[in-house]
Amino acid sequence: MILKKRNLQLVAVTDMTVLRTNVSLHDAVELAIKGGVSMVMLRQQHLGHDAMMREAVRLKILCGMYDIPFLVMGKTDIAQAVDADGVVVRWEDFDARKIRKMLGVDRLIGVFIKTPEEAKKAEEEGASFLFEGPVKVRDGEIEEEVITPEELVAVCGAVQIPVVAYGGIADDDLNELRGTGIFGIGVATSIFGQSDIEGAARSLRDLAADVL
Fold first, then answer.
1. Could you tell me what percent of the chain has a pLDDT over 70?
2. Cβ distance 99 to 86 under 8 Å?
3. Other C-beta atoms within 10 Å of 155: how many?
4. pLDDT band (50, 70, 90) for residue 29
C-alpha cells in the first residue's frame, strides 16, 4: 500500500493488559478508531499464536471497514495469513529480504530503532517507516533506554522515511515534540488505559494535528 503522512499521525498500539473498561479488544480498537487513530498495530505479546491470529482476523476486518492500515507487531507469519497491510519488527529482527518474500513488495515494514545509525541502515535495507522510543520529554533522571526529543531530531534528520515517536506519550507531552521532525506518535496506555478510549484518542488526534 502507499503510505500517506496522515496514516502515521496517531498509531494505536494495542495492549489488553491496560484496558480499564469492560470491552473486548475489538470494541476497544473500534472506539479508538472512532476517536481518530490513523493506524492500528496489533501488539499482544501475552497471547498464544492461535489467539493472536483470531484477534488479527477481527482487527483486519475492522480496520478495512474504516479504511485505515492494520499492521502486526513482530509476527510476519500472522501478518501474511490475515493479509495485513504490513508488519512492525524490532531492529534485531529486521530482515527486509525475508519479510518481503513473505508479504510481498507492496506491504509496509516498520522498524523499531534507537540510533541514527540504525535508522540509516533500516532505510537503506527497505524499511517503510521507523518507530523510535520510548520517549521522555520531561526533565529528571534519564534512563539508558529512553529517547529524548533531541535524539528524535537526530534520527529524523538522518533519514528520508517517516519517523514515529512512541512510548509513554500523553497529551501534555506532545508540545515538547513540536519541531522534532516526527510524522506521528504511537500510543498504547494513553488510549487503551483510559476510561474513555474514544475521547482519549480524539484528544491526542487533535493535539497531534496541531503539533506535527
1. 96
2. no
3. 24
4. very high
Rg of the chain over Cα atoms, rounded to whole angstroms, equals 16
Domain boundaries, the chain: 5-211
pLDDT band at 72 (very low <50, low <70, confident <90, very high): very high
Q: How far apart are CA 161 and CA 169, in angstroms?
A: 21
The HSE-up count of residue 168 (CA atoms within 13 Å, CB side) is 12
Say what the alpha-carbon torsion angle 149, 153, 158, 164 is, to the nearest 10 degrees.
60
5-211 falls under which CATH superfamily? Aldolase class I (3.20.20.70)
Candidates 197, 148, 174; CA nearest to 15 is 197
Angle formed at CA 178 by CA 174 and CA 183, multiple of 5 degrees: 85
Distance CA 70, CA 62 (A): 9
**Is the pTM here over 0.90, yes or no?**
yes
